[in-house]
Amino acid sequence: MFRSPPTLFNQSAPFLRFAFFVILSFAFIFSDHQLHATESIRSFVQKVLAPIQLIINTPSQWLASGAENIQSMSSMKDLINKQTEQIKDLTLIANHAENLNAENSSLRKLLSLQQQTQFKTLSAEIIFNPNNPASQKLVVNRGALHGLKLGMPVASDAGIMGQVTRVFENSSEVTLLEEKDFTIPIQVARNGLRGALFGAGRAQPLELRYISALGELDVGDYLTTSGIDGTYPPGFPVAMISKIDRSPDNSGAIVICLPLANLNRDRHLIILLYQPQTEAPQPLVPDPIIGKRVLRKKEAESNVKK
After folding, report:
1. SS3 assignment, position 174
2. Is residue 16 in some structural domain?
3. Residues 85, 142 within the same domain
4. I need a surface site. Which of 201, 203, 208, 239 has the fewest CB within 10 A?
5. CA-based torsion, 74, 76, 81, 85: positive or negative
6. What residue numbers bound the domain in which 209 lies?
């Protein structure tokens, strides 16, 4: 009742089965390579499987694209942060270079002023500015060891700034023109009128007083040191008249002046090693008067002994 399998597929004939499949494989290869018999089949299968392949590959493409975008965004963010830091560094360097140029320009002007003076000068740098709105004083990095003394004038390239009021070993305190009740004798450069310039406090204009001929003053007149006080050398610029109030409410006139030096801007200044002459000379006494004084002194001593 049961049929036996063909001889080719009999379990006892493995070599014949192997040979059959090898020959069949070579036949397919020959027909595909020489006769192109399976191209239409492959083309049809490719058309059928193309949408399925596209659907299968789409998620992986999206993941790859998303990962690439994320990596690109991360790289761009790092690049932007790096460029931002570079811009900050370059801006800082540019500002520092600008400050150095301004400082070099100021130092060159101070050097030019030092060369024009007939006495010694000493450059100094501001190291401390007390945060006191009621005071206009600075501390510089020069002191007694550098030859500074009380009363020595302090100036910038534009004009007088003040004077040394306290001297320490390696530093000194400088009082500026704007200090309240600070006084400096001046002379009007245009006509030679003499007076005194007074400070009124921080950020307040200076006031010119003790002028005998107020009618000869004009706005824009330059004021220079008179030199009659023995503290400031004569001829140094100090201030400029900015306003003259001749209103009838005043007994005379109020003369407002602006200092020529940048009192709150400059970092470097120069100290004029001009020895203040604060001691008044002794009056000349004729010889006969001196003789009488000596005689009276001797008579007084002899009366005391008796």
Report:
1. strand
2. no
3. no
4. 203
5. positive
6. 121-272
In terms of pLDDT, which residue wins out, 207 or 66?
207
- Each residue's pLDDT tens digit, 153-209: 998 888 889 999 999 999 999 999 988 889 999 989 888 889 999 998 887 889 999
C-alpha torsion 38→40→45→51, nearest 10: 150
98 within a domain of the structure (yes/no): yes
Q: Which of 144, 119, 123 is nearest to 233 (CA)?
A: 119
Q: How far apart are CA 240 and CA 40, in angstroms?
A: 105
Q: In which element (H, E) is residue 270 found?
A: strand 268-272
User: Residue 159: is it exposed, middle or buried by C-beta count within 10 angstroms (0-12/13-18/19+)?
Assistant: buried
Residue type, 275: Q
- Name the β-bridge partners of 174: 138, 164
Three-state secondary-structure class, residue 136: coil
CB 164 within 8 A of CB 151: yes
Q: Which of 117, 82, 67 is nearest to 272 (CA)?
A: 117
Task: Give the largest Cα separation in the chain, rounded.
Answer: 186
What type of residue sits at position 126? Answer: I
Secondary element (H or E) of residue 52: helix 39-116
Least Cα distance to 272 among 128, 148, 103 occurs for 148
